[in-house]
Specification:
single chain, globular, binds adenosine-5'-diphosphate, binds nickel (II) ion
Length: 221
């Protein structure tokens, strides 16, 4: 019988391999940061009590394996995750929870209807959202936008409110708009106190960054 530590090692190797060519900020390093953020939040909020740390880490590491932003296959996210769990020989009681949580975790999956996640899901969701903010969040947004042929900024295109998943997924707005269309909404959507506090701090930094950005745009030296 493999221990949970050995199983997590296999998950790490699998995620590294599967995200080798990923260049939009959904790579292994993102997965690893999300795990670290999730462990930090779990420790702060629960002292790790009542939290299944194996489930938490597996969800964090695997959460973007089948995400619509990186999925170039004809398989659904659910199929990709079920296949990964099968390949990794993750016990059935865990694989069903992993698939159920991850398929309801992303921002886009919660636009039209907010899903109630178990604690492990709530924590990873906050951890993932934190990685969309701050200095790393800025880098990831521009990397994603560049890959999707988005403009950096266009003062003539105003930010939109996305009320449907379709509108969110299909927008071709410049990357700066993404800050207003999603990233600055995240702090109010955080599930945990710790997540919210960190989100506020990271958002503050992004607002400072934008001040400089608009200043330079207007010609400030
Ligand atoms: P989620 O899938 O829950 O939104 P992820 O961390 O997996 O969270 O991916 C979100 C990241 O994808 C954003 O932080 C951003 O970097 C990038 N992204 C998604 N949509 C856009 C967009 N329209 N413009 C720029 N970046 C985007
Ligand atoms: Ni993610």
């Amino acid at each position: 019988m493999r221990t949970q530590i050995q199983l997590l090692k296999s998950v790490e190797i699998y995620v590294k391999k599967k995200t080798e060519r990923e260049t939009t900020g959904h790579d292994w390093f993102h997965a690893d940061r999300v795990r670290r953020n999730a462990l930090f939040i779990a420790q702060k909020e629960f002292g790790n009590k009542d939290i299944d740390l194996f489930l938490l880490q597996a969800v964090a590491l695997m959460h973007d394996l089948g995400d619509w932003k990186v999925n170039t296959t004809s398989k659904s996210e659910k199929e990709i995750l079920e296949n990964a769990c099968l390949m990794l020989k993750i016990p059935e009681n865990y694989s069903s929870q992993i698939v159920e949580i991850i398929t309801h975790l992303s921002y886009s999956a919660n636009i039209e209807k907010k899903y109630e996640l178990p604690f492990e899901g709530k924590i990873v969701q906050d951890a993932d959202r934190l990685d969309a903010l701050g200095a790393i969040g800025i880098a990831r947004a521009f990397a994603f936008g560049g890959k999707r042929d988005r403009q950096i900024y266009n003062p003539n295109i105003k930010p939109k409110t996305h009320k449907s998943t379709k509108s969110y997924k299909t927008t071709e707005n410049p990357t700066i708009n993404h800050f207003y269309e999603k990233l600055f909404l995240l702090k109010d959507l955080m599930n945990t106190k710790t997540g919210k506090k960190l989100a506020l701090k990271r958002e503050k930094f992004m607002k400072k960054y934008l001040e400089k950005f608009y200043g330079e745009w207007k010609g400030e030296i």
